[in-house]
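Discussion board: Methods & Data

I've been asked by a reviewer to show the raw model output for two of the constructs in my manuscript, not just the figures. I'm not sure how much to include, so I'm pasting the format here to get opinions. Each protein appears as its amino acid sequence followed by a line of discrete structure tokens. Is this the kind of thing reviewers expect to see in a supplement, or should I convert it first? Here is construct A:
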Amino acid sequence: MTANRQIVLADLPKGKLAPENFRLTETERGSPGEGEVLLKILYVSLDAANRAWMQGATYRSALQAGDVMAGGALAEVIDSKSDRLAVGDLVFADTGWQEYAVLPAKRLAKVPRIEPLTHLLSVYGVAGLTAYFGLLECGAPKACETVVVSAAAGSVGSLVGQIAKLKGCRVVGIAGGAAKCQLLKDRFGFDEAVDYKAGDLRKALKAACPDGIDVYFDNVGGDVLEACLFGMNTHGRIACCGAVSQYDGAAPAYGPRGVPGLIVTKRLTLRGFIVSDFDDKRDQAMKNLQAWVASGQLKVQEDVLEGLESLPGALIGLLAGENVGKRMVRVA
């Protein structure tokens, strides 16, 4: 038999995610049946949403103890019993954390073989498309407006800020630590950066955004969302992408305070979204992203770790803010 190593969710975390919540197991690789393909996983994407899936159903079903840990991956077809996909094709799929997966071909979409392959998980993958659609479709920024993005040194945030700059906006990033804040300005071209760990965030935002906030791209929720709400201009727009501050550990004692009144008096628009909402616009988005990368206008930051066994620590570290740019693990 050909072995297939898997990482299983040993039990659901009751507090912060820890290495003991995972278990490395080994099973048979399996073979595709009619209409199926056998995939070899190349790179696994690490996302804050991985942790949210342990808390309950979201846009996908909740994870249970004993499940192979869920996660999206770039994979190569190594055996096919379908005319939809051939050996050598690349796909992005919810394979889970394992070395091989057998999946129905009809659920998979072929992706182009673009070098470096890692870009298919970062700027040309869910991260890039999330940044593109969340900012441009939900935030709808106009030239000269002020755009603020949280988790700005992360996979999505670093791209949001750069796209906003391409659209002629003034961009302020919120990140954790002086080093990340400096990187936002030096590498990604942000106008200002605010360290949320450094003290009074609301006061720091007011100093960085003297004319208020027109668009806020929210990746974290919680206290950061609250601080930005108080700085929003009338008719401001908030693109609600994630709430990583509330994924790992106990639920917060309260949500952002004063929200109903602020939304009404400032006539704010808050819009949640996922990438698949904009499938009809994906081709144009990809063309624009590729053009910006090729011209050097969009810089791609990736954080690639090695080996299947590193996945639990990689996710725990991502939730703690270790990464800069898109974090992924190379499996093969």
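Construct B, same format:
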Amino acid sequence: MRSLVLILSNSRYFGPSWVFASVNLLFGTWAIYIPTVKEKLGIDKADLGFALFFLSLGVFTVFPFAAKIINRIGVGRATWFGVLWCCLAALLPLMATNYYSLLGGLFIFGAGTGFTDISMNTLVTEIEKEDKQYFMSASHGFFSLGGVLAGLGSFFVVPIGNPVVHMVGAVCLVFIVNFIFHFGYKKVVSVKIPKVPFNLKLYKPLLVLGLISFIVMGSEGAVVDWSGLFLKEISMAPESLIGAGFLGFSITMTVGRFLGDSICTKLSAIAMISLGTVIAIIGYVLVLSTITYLAISGFALIGLGFSVIIPVLFRIGGNLEGVESSQGVSFIAGTGYLGFLLGPVILGFLAESYSLKHSFTALLACAAVVLGTTYILKKSKD
């Protein structure tokens, strides 16, 4: 909790952390109105799925260019630019008057969130270097908090009665708070590192980090999308408990991120990844027991175990020797997003071909792979 106190008591740390909350607040507010947009434009589920693909396409399109832009204009200014981009782009999908304007709006919104994701993680990495303070994990906790704020905003759907007006309210909240606090980080720039000749050995740790990011975020996406169905069809849970797995996962994910920085001061980054993976493996074992309450507890443990891994990966990636922080963060973010998008799809394919229990067994195996990769990271460090 020390990092949370640090964030709440110092504007230099609160500003970047609020950017994390802002991205998820805007994205979550858009997600509330997906069914409304579908009905308004008269599109079917297949059309909607293709439109959401454009959101992802926007995210991936910006990744190859983000690092160069961030290095050119400075990571602080890039983060502020990303916030403004997201504020404007978040309105476009809800203002779409036809299917093609929806595709364009989602692409621009996706590109904005992708760019901001890389810049804000790079920003926190650089401030941690300058101040020798850990708050990356807690900043990711603020990302989860942004989702909570978006969820609370759903209670205003009926009273407001207009998706665009609702989003304008969310945008105003995001913009005003960011405008007040962005002066504290606007002048932060990435530390220049000496250029070194390309060496595969130098980039080997980054490839391993990318693999871990792909698996962990893919697993997160799978739990988010499939935990309810697992409890319903495999654990035969009553209707009232079907959402309990996702709830437990979300709560422990948020709490774990707020606590993670304090633990990082006592354990090495690699030890943190190992510990988190072991906790997640125990969670998968409980889930695969198929006993309802054990499975719910398992999903909660998976959330707790994975909560600190992604923040730690960004911290390691932003501090690799011979690799610019923006490049390291961009690569880890890209592989992670790819996993988050493909994970649920692959899990669904396995569930259709075999069973949902086999799918979660595969996730357990993937967690074991992550545990094995920590040995490679430790060896590379040595």
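Answer (T.O., handling editor elsewhere):
This is acceptable in a supplement if you add a one-line summary per construct. For B, something like: Residues 57 and 139 are 25 Å apart (CA to CA).
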